[in-house]
Design goal:
By secondary structure, this protein is mainly alpha-helical. The chain contains 25 helices and no strands.
């Protein structure tokens, strides 16, 4: 059947191209204002890659939230609500929250051990050498390519279904505007556009949640409950208790939760964009910014997925449904069209335009960060490491710009390929974790376990990937009798494949390490230096060292304090660097010992008994000497404080979302109307909580910078008029 509520194709092209141009123009103007009034220069590698490590709490929280508010989530959340009932959107949200809380721990460890790093791969190479660097670079690129293409394809399918655009045109045009403003502003631009995208997308998300729920065909929470219960008398959901949509006990939902949680761990830990955001945040902003993002991200799928998914079930056979008398086809569900069709049926063409805008906002905000992440891999981890080790800052920026353009076009083309081989949102969502999670535990242990060996970090991800792929293919054959695209998309094969990939690599890493552990000194990471900046000719900008850290959020007036140079052990000059300083002296110190097997661990003879074992596994060792820490001695108590907070917070989030909250509900129980009412009200409240935290709070935390900008504009405009 024809989708009667389609917008004209011109509207689709106009929004996809026009909004991209508007954002590109807006970010160019914004960066010029920031350069003039806040002394920020996007044409230096430190600003382009890590935003001079000076982003505060509010903007960090907004950027983290935006980076995790994917187009796939706004679409897929409604799909799992349709498929599994009330449990689906909850498990979807659980699969988002813990991962960001885990990045609190990883992020503050980066601040402690490698504060001058630019990418996760730079840190990996410093510890594991060329072999480990190449393996992790391949894993990160696979992650970035697969995830970005998945997002583009999902958004393109939704936009194409609403506007009638060809899906290939939609895939190719979505990255266009993102390339423009990302090249113009770098990571700082993605932080700023992330904020604008988040505001627009979150407002639309709240609107659709309330508008669908309060539409006269739905009639509010109580009537929706009654309609779903009546629907359940004739239609049963396989795997749910009593076949009801109003039960939390759902076998397929648990399978989805496992796959989704494991896959998202890969999407976060192996996505260098998340590492760069933690590197870009100032010291006091890293943990609280990620904590706010972790709490708020729960809103993305919870309310809208519950309301839209259940509403779709009860209206799909009503005359208002776009495909009436047919309901949703398997292809519609696989492509994530539950939300677009439901919104169009209940709210009309205006809502369809809103869906297009929301999808465009969510996909562009995340692809921009992916472009910066991949461009940093190309410029730092390929170009500067293997092609031109003495590259100037200007050369790195040029390569970074080329990397943004290349990856944007490549990801769009890869999304087109995925479309033509017959995959969709649902299939890719289940499969993704198999290929992106083998490096998760080795990457985390790079910062948390000093005994992990080069051999373990290099070999374990490869063995884990092989284990996951073998289990995926083998169980698909076992459960279905044959292997095809359809059988490989089944729940159980993907559960086994995801578990095998991620936990297999952990097992292999531990075993290989214990056979021949190494004794890595965390202080060696401090040898990673900042890149020497080519000062803009028209700038009175400060030196690199001066531009790192110490804003306590954007609350401060923009002042910066110097840090210590890890090589010289003396404070860098506050106003100018030595004229004898060369670029070579400021590039990272490359690992000189490239032996794959490092010298065997030597246990001091005075250590006896069980303590020998603890020393062997790295539990009890001599404390690391941070006396020459690049951030200075005064930063260490702050780092240790936030590390404790991060560990407690991450553990609490995991226990709450995976044990304390869901398991009491996983029983033979069909929800009553009062419980469902409280559930939906709480989900809607979470939407507004997120709006306050990631839309309003950044304005408050950045009030000093905003005041400086507005005051500067006022002085320039009115002073100039007065002189005229």
């Amino acid at each position: 059947m024809v989708f009667e509520q389609k917008l004209p194709q011109g509207a689709g092209y106009g929004m996809v191209i026009g909004i991209g141009f508007v954002f590109a123009a807006g970010i160019v103007i914004t960066m010029k204002i920031a350069k003039r009034y806040l002394n920020e220069h996007s044409q230096t590698s430190e600003m382009f890659m890590v935003a001079n490590r000076s982003v505060g709490v509010g903007l960090t929280a907004s950027a983290v939230f935006s980076s995790w508010m994917w187009a796939t989530e706004t679409l897929w959340g409604s799909v799992v609500g349709y498929n599994f009932g009330v449990s689906g959107p909850f498990w979807f949200s659980v699969g988002l929250a813990f991962h960001i809380s885990l990045m609190c721990v990883v992020g503050i460890q980066v601040k402690l051990k490698a504060p001058n790093g630019h990418t996760m791969l730079e840190i990996v190479k410093f510890r594991y050498g060329v072999a480990g660097h190449i393996v992790f670079m391949a894993l990160c690129l696979i992650n970035n390519i697969m995830s970005c293409s998945w997002m583009i394809l999902s958004a393109a399918a939704g936009i194409a279904s609403i506007t009638g655009m060809h899906i290939v045109a939609s895939c190719m045009l979505i990255p266009f505007g993102v390339i423009l403003y990302t090249v113009a502003g770098g990571l700082r631009a993605t932080f700023l556009t992330d904020y604008v995208h988040t505001v627009i997308a979150l407002v639309l998300l709240i609107y659709f949640s309330l508008a669908i729920l309060l539409h006269h065909e739905i009639g509010g929470i109580h009537q929706l409950y009654d309609m779903v219960i009546e629907y359940g008398t004739t239609t049963k959901v396989l795997g749910n208790y009593e076949g009801s949509l109003m039960t939390f006990k759902s076998e397929e939902a648990i399978y989805f939760a496992i796959v989704h949680t494991i896959g998202n761990l890969g999407l976060v830990i192996m996505d260098t964009a998340f590492w760069q955001k933690s590197l870009a945040a100032n010291l006091e902003a890293t943990v609280p910014g990620y904590m706010i993002g972790s709490i708020c991200i729960f809103c993305v799928s919870w309310a809208l997925g519950t309301i839209c998914g259940l509403s779709a079930r009860v209206i799909e056979h009503m005359p208002i449904f776009p495909n009436y008398p047919n309901g949703f086809s398997a292809a519609d569900i696989g492509n994530g069209l539950v939300l677009p069709y439901t919104a169009a049926a209940l709210l009309g063409k205006g809502a369809s335009a809103g869906i297009v805008i929301m999808l465009f906002m969510t996909v562009t905000s995340t692809t921009s960060a992916e472009m910066i992440a991949v461009s940093s891999i190309i410029s730092f981890d390929l170009y500067r490491t293997y092609i031109n080790p003495n590259a100037s800052d200007r050369a790195i920026i040029t390569v970074s710009h080329a990397g943004v353009i290349f990856f944007g076009l490549f990801a769009a083309g890869f999304a087109v390929m995925l479309h033509y081989v017959g995959t969709d949102l649902n299939w890719l969502g289940y499969f993704l974790g198999i290929v992106i999670t083998p490096g998760v535990f080795p990457a985390i242990l790079t910062l948390l376990w000093k005994r992990q060996s080069r051999a373990a970090a290099t070999i374990a991800p490869i063995l884990g990937l092989g284990t996951g792929m073998g289990l995926w293919l083998g169980t698909a054959k076992y459960y279905s009798g044959h292997i095809s695209v359809e059988t490989l998309g089944g729940s159980l094969p993907n559960v086994w494949g995801n578990v095998g990939s991620m936990f297999g690599s952990l097992f292999y890493s531990v075993v290989i390490t214990l056979l021949r552990p190494e004794d890595f000194d965390w202080a060696k990471f401090q040898q990673i230096k900042l890149v020497n900046e080519d000062k803009p000719e028209d700038s009175e900008s400060q030196t690199e060292a001066e531009l790192v850290h110490t804003e306590k959020g954007e609350e401060d007036s923009g002042a910066h304090t110097p840090i210590e140079d890890a090589g010289a052990h003396t404070p860098l000059d506050k106003h100018e660097s030595s004229p004898e300083t060369s670029v070579h002296e400021h590039t990272i110190t490359v690992v000189t010992d490239e032996r794959f097997f490092q010298p065997r661990l030597v246990i001091p003879p005075e250590i006896r008994g069980f303590k020998r074992f603890l020393w062997y596994v790295g539990w009890e060792t001599e404390p690391t000497d941070y006396s020459n820490h690049p951030l200075g001695q005064e930063a260490l108590p702050v780092i240790f404080k936030w590390y404790k907070v991060a560990v407690i917070f991450s553990t609490t989030i995991f226990l709450l979302t995976w044990v304390v909250w869901p398991f009491p509900m996983y029983r033979n129980w069909v929800w009553g109307k009062s419980f469902f009412t409280g559930w939906v009200v709480m989900a809607i409240f979470w939407n507004f909580l997120a709006f306050v935290c990631v839309c309003i709070y950044p304005l408050y935390s950045g009030r000093q910078s905003l005041f400086k900008v507005f005051n500067g504009l006022y002085q320039d405009i009115f002073h100039r008029r007065h002189k005229e």
